[in-house]
Structure formats: structure tokens, C-alpha cells
Amino acid sequence: MNSKLAWGELKFVAAIGAAGSLSGAARMLATSHATVYRRLGRIETDIGVRLFDRHREGYTPTLAGEEVLALAERVETDVLAVERSLTGQDLEPSGTVRITTTDSLYVGLLAPILASFQKEYSDITLEVSVSNRPYDLSKRQADVAVRPSTAPAESLVGRRVGLIEQAVYMRAGDQPVDLKQATWIGAEQAMQYRELDRWMAKSELDELCIQRSDSVVAMQEAARCGVGLTVLPLYLAEKDTGLQRLTEPVEDLSIDLWVLVHQDLRTAGRIKLFTNKISKMIAEELARYSV
After folding, report:
1. Domain, as residue range, for 186
2. Strands 58-61 and 209-213, how do they pair?
3. Same domain, 82 and 102
4. Domain boundary among 88, 123, 138
5. What is the pTM of this model?
6. Nearest to 25 by CA among 51, 66, 76, 59
7. Do 39 and 109 reside in the same domain of the chain?
8. Rounded Cα–Cα distance for residues 278 and 146 (Å)
9. d(CA 222, CA 200)
10. Is the per-residue pLDDT at 288 higher than 50?
């Protein structure tokens, strides 16, 4: 194998290895299936070694491919570390801040806060990724995470901005029912909502679920439509006139809300300004929804 491997090529190899297919790699790289196919063919021709075996089920790395994938992972780690370090040295409060948060936090709490921030700081562009799966800040998938957490990763720094309290809700106007005599809306497995899963199992409610979702906002809407009872955060459900609360906040489901950044980015001007401002606004807003 000769050594004609640049970082640009390694990114294509790494994406195919991670996705297991050309189409999956194309989605990860925001390019076309044909482009990935051509680049892989050119890379294998240039280095004189086959990197992937092609099967109906997808692409699996050869021994040489595994070696190149390991190299790609090491290079990516080093490149991202340098990028974070350089971003951290940027003291100017301008540029782009990439935020990741959940659907319920964006809809119920953050949307007006971010709008207010952008009116005041027009030189900062916000990119918001709304997802219920965690983003890896070490890989620059986002600069700032606004997430509930019991124990943030050691590589992250930030602040606890308040306590998220949750309670049981149902459609407004319906006759209140005993929790164990009702139908329920729960969390789908892909959502990884382990705290809710444990509480429902402990309370013998999990077998009463007739609908599960990977979105808290979808659970809210299902409750509004009368599908059943569900657990929702107070900041989202208390202002929803289509819902009524059946219980006091469930202590087992209270969780801290954090504004987090990677430690290498904590001194970047725009990141520091953004996290300081929104942390205060989130804390003030969240305090309104405490019973």
C-alpha cells in the first residue's frame, strides 16, 4: 500500500465504515451516492489496495480497510482538537454558534429566548439542531448543548440552570381517572428516556401504554387528542390549554437542566457571550414552572 492518503480521502473512508453503505456515507457527508462511489474507487486505485468488501447487506472493511479506518479515527481526533483550540482563541462575539437541544426544550422554552438573543446580537448566527439523541460536542457536532442531565461528561463545562419538573397530564375537559385505570402514552425505545421507562415500570404503568413515541412534543399532542395519559415537563405542558395536570410533579423524574460546551471552547468570545446570556434567561423562565 502506498501512502497517497490525505484527510479528504480519509473522511470518505471513515463515513463508509461508519454507515456501512455508500448511500449512508453520502448522507453523512451531504453529497451524492455517485460521488462517494467515485471517490472510493479512486482511493483504492491510488493506494493499490481494496478497502471494503461489497455485499448485498452493505460494505464491510477488509483488513487493510480496518487499518485505514483506525488511522482516520486518529486523524479526526487530532483535527477536531485543533479546530476546538482555534475556536477557543476567537475572542470576538461574532460568527456562528451551533446549538443542540431537544424538541420539547426548543418548543417549550428556548425558541423565544433564542429570538430575543438574536435581536440583540445580530452579528451572531445561530444554527439549532433539534434532536432527542445526544450530540457529541467533542466531534464539533455542536458548540453548545442545552440538555437535561444527571451527570454531564467530564470533557464538558457549563452550568446548571434549573430543575425540570414533570407531572402526569391528560386532555383538558376529560374526566380525571385513576392512573392504573387509564391508557398511557410512553417513550419509544430509540428515545432512550430511561428515567421515564424506569418510573413507569416501577409504577406498573408500562403495560398500559397503547402508544409510544420518540418525541416529547408528539407525546404532548397525543395527550391533547385524548389518546391517554402521559408525563410531560411543566415548562411545556402548564401553558397548554388543551391539557390538564393530574398529579403533583413526580420526584423521580425531576432532572437538572444544563447549558454545556466543550472545555476547549469555553473562552471563545461568541460562545462565552451566548452561554452567559441564555443561561440567565433560561433560569428565569424555568423558575416560573416550579410547583
Report:
1. 166-253
2. unpaired
3. no
4. 88
5. 0.67
6. 59
7. no
8. 10
9. 18
10. yes
| pLDDT tens for each residue of 169-223 | 999 999 999 999 999 999 998 788 888 999 999 999 999 999 999 999 999 999 9
Residues in CB range of 101: below 8 A, 6 or more apart: 110, 128, 129, 130, 145, 146, 147
Report the C-alpha gap between 287 and 164 in whole angstroms. 9
What separation, in Å, do the N-terminal and C-terminal C-alpha atoms of the chain show? 66
Output 234 or 56, whichever has higher pLDDT: 234
For residue 150, the one-letter residue type is T
19-30 CB burial, b ≥16 within 10 A, e <16: bbebebbbebbe
Q: What is the C-alpha separation between 249 and 117, in angstroms, rounded?
A: 30
| Placement of cell 464539533 in the chain | 140
Cell of 95: 460568527
* Residues 164 and 287: beta-carbon distance below 8 Å: no
Rounded-to-10 torsion of CA 242, 253, 178, 237: -10
